[in-house]
Write a structure and sequence with these properties.
This protein is of the alpha/beta class. The chain has one domain (about 35-305): Alpha/Beta hydrolase fold, catalytic domain (Rossmann fold), CATH 3.40.50.1820. It has helices at about 1-20, 35-40, 95-105, 125-140, 160-170, 205-210, 215-220, 255-270, 290-305, and strands at about 50-55, 60-65, 75-80, 110-115, 150-160, 190-195, 245-250, 275-280. Strand 3 (about 75-80), helix 3 and strand 4 (about 110-115) form a beta-alpha-beta unit. The chain starts with a helix and ends with a helix.
Length: about 300
């Protein structure tokens, strides 16, 4: 019986081949085209409702985005940290303005922070981290006056900004002797890390290759016995803050295995962590409104702050 079935299958295949025009081929499937910096920059760039300065340097500003139709009551907030390989020459707040505007229209107050990068005077350790902390402390201090609910705040970071967002959520874990320690820093309801480069020590070779930045030289405390203990989120686990990691399957900067590794470490430490690997997406879709990756990011933020 099996032999007859096998012969019938081969006979059917022969008939199909005989009926096909000689040399014909099935059309090749279209290849996915992940977004680039250029395609991200082509998206609408909404203007912030207000620009707030917290220091003298050009980068030490916050862009505040608010809903056009403001609902009654206090607004949930998203602290948004842009990427750009920790370098001013790569990218800045403009990279995340489309995301900031879209999240504002979903009902968030979006606190998009600028900070000095490693190629700016005062950037690196501890300046970059001190700037991120100061910008978040400013939100905590001004939340009530601005109609923002400081009890419903989530952090969102992209690429290098994901590292800084996760670090900021772990500030309460810093050793007391650290120059970056704070008595009672704002603790978010959750962190969404998009295409994150988050393990400064374990991913140092990748960061040097992709960004041209040596984390040991510019993003760590070189005078400490353990240079990355104060700056790499991995060394500050557990934080008690839930994390959602979002990676595009075609992300050539921060490939999905990096997010999986961090989620596994966080869970082993006792934290809540989940990862979404998004089909047909690269490094930028997670901050591009209108994409599946951005929908996942927005849903995670809404889940953390509802």
């Amino acid at each position: 019986m099996a032999a007859r079935a096998g012969r019938s299958a081969w006979a059917l295949l022969a008939l199909v081949l005989a009926a096909s025009p000689a040399g014909s081929q099935l059309p090749a499937p279209a290849l996915p085209q992940p977004m680039t910096v250029r395609s991200l920059a082509a998206l609408p760039q909404p203007e912030p409702a207000e620009t707030i300065r917290y220091g003298e340097a050009e980068s030490q500003v916050v862009e505040l985005f608010l809903p056009r139709q403001r609902p009654e009551g206090l607004l949930p907030a998203v602290v948004l940290v842009h990427g750009g390989c920790w370098q001013a020459k790569v990218a800045g707040r403009e990279l995340v303005r489309p995301a900031a505007g879209a999240l504002a229209q979903k009902g968030f107050a979006v606190w998009s922070i600028g900070y000095r990068r490693v190629d700016e005077e005062g950037g690196g350790f501890p300046g970059t981290y001190a700037d991120v902390a100061s910008a978040i402390d400013l939100l905590a201090a001004q939340a009530a006056d601005r109609g923002i609910d400081s009890g419903r705040v989530a952090f969102l970071g992209h690429s290098a900004g994901a590292h800084l967002a996760l670090w900021a959520a772990a500030r309460h874990r810093l050793p007391k002797e650290s120059p970056l320690a704070a008595a009672s820093p704002l603790r978010p309801k959750g962190v969404v890390a998009v295409g994150g480069l988050v393990d400064l020590e374990g991913e140092a070779a990748l960061i040097r290759d992709v960004c041209g930045v040596d984390p040991a030289e510019s993003l760590a405390n070189r005078d400490a016995e353990k240079p990355f203990a104060e700056t790499s989120p991995v060394g500050l686990l557990p934080t008690g803050v839930p994390v959602t990691l979002v990676h595009g399957i075609y992300d050539g900067v921060a490939y999905p295995a990096l997010g999986l590794a961090h989620a596994q470490r966080a869970r082993r430490a006792g934290d809540r962590a989940e990862i979404f690997v998004v089909p047909n997406s690269g490094h930028f879709e997670g901050i591009a409104p209108g994409t599946r990756a951005f929908d996942i990011v927005a849903a995670a933020l809404e889940g953390f702050t509802r």
